[in-house]
């Protein structure tokens, strides 16, 4: 197995060789938030947005995005995910998205969880922008990672 780096011997970008790594159970959890005005928040909460059930569509979009992360993020490994979930919670003046991705494999699923959250929140924006173009997507971050060579990690 070569060194785990995105650079080859000449300093050029390449996909990391994970062929020699052991397969382990890996889980990643990401969070993100979208803030909006009160009317938009009420429409999402009540399911009365002009484009229908925004959060149901955003959930599916996030799951689909996680499955296509390698097509979106350069040098990311294509992964056969075991599971992806996207959940939403109404928090203050907005909605928080939480994505969990898991697999048994040789590389982690942090990028898949982060991609799921990002696309889910972008979908909320797209479907509700007729009400509120000033929505703000923020705080997209990894909050937990389990498994793999580097072990477990949890955001403080």
UniProtKB/TrEMBL annotation:
Binding-site positions, substrate: 75-77, 111-112
NCBIfam families: moaC (TIGR00581), PRK09364.1 (NF006870)
Pathway: Cofactor biosynthesis; molybdopterin biosynthesis
Any one GO molecular-function label of the UniProt entry: cyclic pyranopterin monophosphate synthase activity
Protein family: Belongs to the MoaC family.
GO terms, biological process: Mo-molybdopterin cofactor biosynthetic process
UniProt-annotated catalytic positions: 126
Functional note: Catalyzes the conversion of (8S)-3',8-cyclo-7,8-dihydroguanosine 5'-triphosphate to cyclic pyranopterin monophosphate (cPMP).
Keywords in alphabetical order: Lyase, Molybdenum cofactor biosynthesis
Residue intervals of the Molybdopterin cofactor biosynthesis C (MoaC) domain: 15-148
Subunit structure: Homohexamer; trimer of dimers.
Designated name of the protein: Cyclic pyranopterin monophosphate synthase
Pfam families for the chain: MoaC (PF01967)
Tagged with keyword Transcription: no
Highest rank taxon of the organism: Bacteria
């Amino acid at each position: 197995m070569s060194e785990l780096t995105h650079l080859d011997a000449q300093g050029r970008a390449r996909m990391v060789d994970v062929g020699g790594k052991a397969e382990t159970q890996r889980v990643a959890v990401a969070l993100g938030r979208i803030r909006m005005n009160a009317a938009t928040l009420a429409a999402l909460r009540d399911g009365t947005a002009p484009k229908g059930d925004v959060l149901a569509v955003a959930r599916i979009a996030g799951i689909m995005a996680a499955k296509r992360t390698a097509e979106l993020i350069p040098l990311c490994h294509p992964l056969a995910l075991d599971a992806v979930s996207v959940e939403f919670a109404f928090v203050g003046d907005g909605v928080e998205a939480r994505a969990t991705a898991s697999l048994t494999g040789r590389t982690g699923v942090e990028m898949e969880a982060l991609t799921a959250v990002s696309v889910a929140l972008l979908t909320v924006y797209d479907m509700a922008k007729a009400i509120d173009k000033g929505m703000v997507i923020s705080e997209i971050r990894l909050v937990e990672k389990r498994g793999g060579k580097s072990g477990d990690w949890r955001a403080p």
